[in-house]
Each structure stands twice: as structure tokens, then as C-alpha cells.
Amino acid sequence: MITNAFAECRFVRCRFPDTGVSDCSFTGCDFEDCDFTSIIVKSSRFEECLFSHCTTSNRLIESSLLPRTDWRGMELAIALVTGNFGLRQSELADCRLVSRIGGGEEITTSATVAVSDLSPIERFRLAYFRSGEVDGDPAALEAALDLRNWGK
Questions:
Q1: What's the number of domains the chain is made of?
Q2: Same domain, 102 and 148
Q3: pLDDT given at position 152
Q4: DSSP code of residue 22
């Protein structure tokens, strides 16, 4: 699917086998008990969407915007946070954040992700996730805005 827009849709117990989604917009959509293990979503926007009790893979969504989304009862890879922007820790309920799906180490709210392994943009995304504020970590924001770091 490329450049499609979905609004106020409800996906219940859906599977998306070998599906690619790119440059799509989802507004006010609910995903309940869906199987996302063989879908890849890139450069899309999910706004005011609910993800509830879905099965995911390591790379569910990449390079996308996730403003005002809710995530309930799921195992999520930290790549969802570092590979996208707009997700906040306060939007997760009964979710397990792991280093990778299927046997990954759980990352608790107080745990420190190996920041040295993250790019400046990924550090900024992680800081936003934790604080819910763009300027929650001024050093991460400054590094993310430094054009010299964009090619890394």
C-alpha cells in the first residue's frame, strides 16, 4: 500500500501477510488483536490510533510519526521508539519494551538503553519518549539539530 489515507477505521484480528505500507496516513484507527509479524510500515503517520493486544515483530514501523497513539498489552521492540518519532512512554499501558521481539531483554522505565550505540537522532527520539517533551533532554535536542550529525 502506498500513499493511502485511512480515517476512523477499525482492524480486528487482521493479519497482514508479507505486506508493505509506505507513505500512508492513519487517523483515529484502532488495531485490536492484529498480527503484525510480517508487515513493514515506513514513512507513514499514525495519529490518535489505538494498538491493543497485537503481535509484533522487531521492525513494525520505521521512519514514521506516531503522535497521540495508545499501545495496550503488547511486546514492543525499542526500535519502535528509536526508529520513529512521537511515541511517549505515557501512551503505553501493560506493554513490555524489549531489546528485540522473541527473547529480547526487557527494558524497564528506569533502565538505560546503550546510548553510545544510538545516533543523535535516536537519542533525541528516546529522550522524547521518556519525557514527552521536545526539550526534555537539551543535550539530545542540540545534538539532533547539529547538521554534522545527520550523515551518521
A1: 2
A2: no
A3: 57
A4: E
What pTM did the predictor assign?
Answer: 0.85
Q: Domain range for residue 127?
A: 113-152
Among 66, 24, 64, which Cα is nearest to 49's? 66
- DSSP-derived secondary structure for 83-94: TSB---GGGEES
Q: pLDDT, tens digit, for every residue of 42-62?
A: 999 999 999 999 998 877 899
Alpha carbons 95 and 51: distance in angstroms, whole number: 11
Which pLDDT tens digit goes with each residue over 128-138? Answer: 999 999 988 89
Pair (28, 98) in one structural domain: yes
Give the residues of the chain that fall short of pLDDT 70. Answer: 101-116, 152
User: And the C-alpha cell for 42?
Assistant: 515506513
Same-domain status, 57 and 80: yes
Which residues does 55 contact at the CB level (< 8 Å), separation at least 6?
Answer: 34, 35, 36, 37
Whether residue 91 sits in one domain with residue 120: no
For residues 97 and 107, give the distance between their C-alpha atoms in angstroms, rounded to a whole number: 5
